[in-house]
Write a structure and sequence with these properties.
The complex is a heterodimer of chains A (276) and B (379). Chain A is built from 15 helices and no strands. Chain A is mainly α. The chains are: A mainly alpha (276), B alpha+beta (379). Chains A and B meet through α9 and α10 of A and β6 and α2 of B.
Chain lengths: 276, 379
């Protein structure tokens, strides 16, 4: 009898946990389509999730009150460049560490390992002074260049490249291919999961990056979404419907990326488990 | 096709320990050379040095009379088949075969033509659009061969290309490789640890051990006249029976040898001079006898050595291996550190009624013994 109950009870518990996790997101999405006054007025009732009236007013308010398109474009430009540039630079660096033999290789590899465990917050201030002395504040460069080379991405590529049989590259060398050709024709196609993982993880981290742009930007022309939403939150009048609409538009690219690359996403999370 | 020459080639991965030591060999155009030896003997290292995948620590390697020590693999015009085939898993069979031609900037029409021709030669036409993962082991092996021959290289290098196949397929593809090489006439260097493969494929076979050449000879010579005890034991399955002995006398084409607590008298090999033997009187020697040279007493042209008990009789399908307990200590040529034992093996026809526990008269075929000095070198 007890044995028969295990499965339904397990499902009930899982459902409850899932609801707990999903409900804030649902609250955000539904709230963004509700008249501003009702967002909190109905917060404790079923109407928080099943409203009687739907409106797009909050969305048009966001566009009317701030230059949302600019922030979105800034975020896309910064994240896209960091992801794209990161794939190239980190993959090359990892390949050099995994396959080429050169003086200082072990030292650089050790440095990459050490950098893995240093949190960004620890280097934010020195980096800020460095960027300031270069006159980079309020630029896209300051938000892009320091984040292209990434020890975690290098390490992920490095471990993946080590798993590709060396004989494949040797065969290509004997067949007449040079180093760059081997990288493009042999390594990249055989390391697609690593490229997907790095792209997804970099995208997620970069899209939500707050501290650094807050430190180095004051000009709205170069600010990304996370800083913009914080500013929007303090912009009077305080309208929760608008804030939720802003938040929905901000996370929608992440949801899109997640839905398209769901399979890869799970794999990349699994492969990044080593980071802890 | 081209000649290949190694002149005093040495390879040291770490200073002081040479993986290959003073290796000198000249390979003729169109010749099929097999490098064979136990694991770690340096045979693959040699092949990789020839391919340009390893640097040369000392000496010179020449392909077609040109020193290639400092040339990249792509500048050497060689093709290599790897142990695991190293097929590009993301490319179709067609693209795998076409890859070396693309690297040589061969025009697409000519490339397609050559790929198809090579595929036909190796019966791969039907799998051209498949990926390597969809192929059987034998097919993969043939794709690797096709990728090697499509560019018409000066030299083929094969690094244990059959070791991942089952025994039957290995024999079949072995003969296909020989046929293909004969037809193309391309110089081939082939590495294996399987002595049977070496004996059946090589025009000449190079036996290696601990980075040094032990003997270079045609397969028949290797078998009949091994240069040392190592070769004697390595070649043949089972290898030569080698036992410790002492030369007690030399007389009229025969030598008297200690055989444990007994003595045996047998004709010495015709390539050994009696005077040379006399200088070794009363010295320790190693005596070698091939299993097929140990025969039952009643056979013509043999010399009886005594009556011994059969320890084990193993039917092999077409023949039988009969192990005799003997009074002498039978050693091995230091292969795999096998312990010395007091038994010798004979290869007899399956029609023999010998069985474990029988005591039988045993004789040695005249002229079949080989003599080695205390260091294991053939006399």
């Amino acid at each position: 009898m007890i044995h028969k109950l295990i499965r339904p009870v397990t499902y009930c518990v899982l459902l409850l946990v899932a609801l707990l996790i999903v409900s804030p997101i649902l609250f955000m999405v539904v709230g963004s389509f509700k008249p501003d006054a009702l967002v909190f007025a109905e917060a404790g009732t079923w109407k928080a999730f099943f409203p009687e009236t739907w409106t797009f007013q909050n969305y048009s308010d966001v566009f009317a009150r701030v230059d949302f398109a600019r922030f979105m474009l800034n975020s896309l430009l910064i994240t896209g460049t960091v992801v794209g540039g990161g794939l190239v630079v980190n993959a090359f660096a990892a390949y050099a560490l995994a396959r080429l033999r050169w003086r200082g290789r072990e030292t650089v590899l050790g440095a990459v390992m050490v950098l893995l465990i240093i949190p960004f917050e620890a280097i934010a201030v020195p980096l800020f002074f460095g960027a300031s002395s270069l006159g980079w504040r309020d630029t896209f460069s300051v938000q892009i260049i320091p984040f292209i080379a990434n020890p975690f991405s290098i390490y992920l590529f490095y471990t993946y490249f080590l798993g590709i049989p060396e004989e494949l590259e040797e065969a290509a060398r004997v067949d007449g291919a040079g180093l760059l050709r081997i990288f493009i024709e042999i390594i990249i196609p055989n390391a697609r999961p690593a490229f997907a993982s790095v792209a997804i993880l970099t995208f997620l981290v970069q899209w939500g990056f707050f501290l650094w742009p807050l430190l180095v930007t004051t000009d709205e022309m170069v600010r990304p979404l996370p800083v913009a939403i914080a500013a929007f939150y303090t912009l009077p009048p305080l309208q929760w419907g608008d804030i939720l609409a802003f938040a929905v538009m901000m996370v929608s690219p992440i949801l899109l990326v997640f839905l398209i690359f769901q399979r890869w996403f799970i794999r990349s999370v699994a492969s990044s488990a080593i980071k802890g | 096709m081209a000649t290949v020459a190694f002149n005093h080639v040495t390879k040291a991965y770490t200073p002081g320990t040479n993986a290959v030591e003073d290796f000198t060999l000249a390979v003729e155009e169109g010749e099929r050379i097999v490098l064979v030896g136990p694991s770690g003997c340096g045979k693959s290292t040699l092949l990789r040095m020839l391919a340009g995948l390893e640097t040369v620590s000392g000496g010179e390697i020449l392909i077609g009379g040109r020193v290639v020590n400092n040339l990249t693999p792509q500048q050497r015009n060689i093709a290599m088949v790897f142990q695991n085939y190293a097929l590009y898993p993301h490319k179709t069979v067609r693209d795998n075969i076409a890859f070396p031609l693309r690297m040589l900037n061969v025009m697409k029409t000519e490339r397609d033509e050559r790929v198809l021709k090579t595929a036909q030669l190796l019966s791969l036409e039907t799998v051209l659009e498949m990926k390597p993962g969809q192929l059987s082991g034998g097919q993969r092996q043939r794709v690797a061969m096709a990728r090697a021959i499509v560019r018409d290289p000066d030299v083929f290098l094969m690094d244990e290309p059959l070791s991942n196949l089952d025994a039957k397929l290995r024999v079949k593809i072995r003969s296909e490789i020989a046929r293909l090489q004969r037809r193309l006439g391309t110089t081939m260097l082939y590495v294996t640890h399987d002595q049977a493969e070496a004996m059946s494929l090589g025009h000449r076979v190079v036996i290696m051990r601990e980075g040094r050449i032990q003997q270079v000879a045609e397969p028949q010579i290797l078998y009949q006249r091994p240069a040392n005890a190592f070769v004697a034991d390595f070649i043949g399955n089972p290898g030569m029976n080698l036992f410790q002995s002492r030369l007690l006398g030399v007389d009229d084409g025969k030598c008297l040898l200690g055989f444990g607590d007994r003595q045996l008298s047998a004709p010495y090999p015709d390539d050994v001079r009696g005077e040379r033997l006399e200088t070794l009187l009363h010295q320790e020697l190693l005596i070698g006898i091939r299993p097929e040279a140990l025969v039952p007493r009643d056979e013509q042209g043999s010399t009886l050595i005594g009556r011994f008990e059969i320890d084990e009789a193993e039917p092999q399908g077409h023949e039988m291996l009969v192990y005799f307990s003997v009074p002498a200590t039978v050693v091995h040529g230091n292969i795999d550190n096998l312990p010395a034992a007091q038994r010798m093996v004979a290869r007899w026809p399956l029609t023999s009624t010998a069985k474990a526990g029988d005591r039988l008269d045993l004789a040695i075929k005249d002229g079949a013994i080989r003599l080695f000095d205390q260091n294991g070198n053939a006399l």
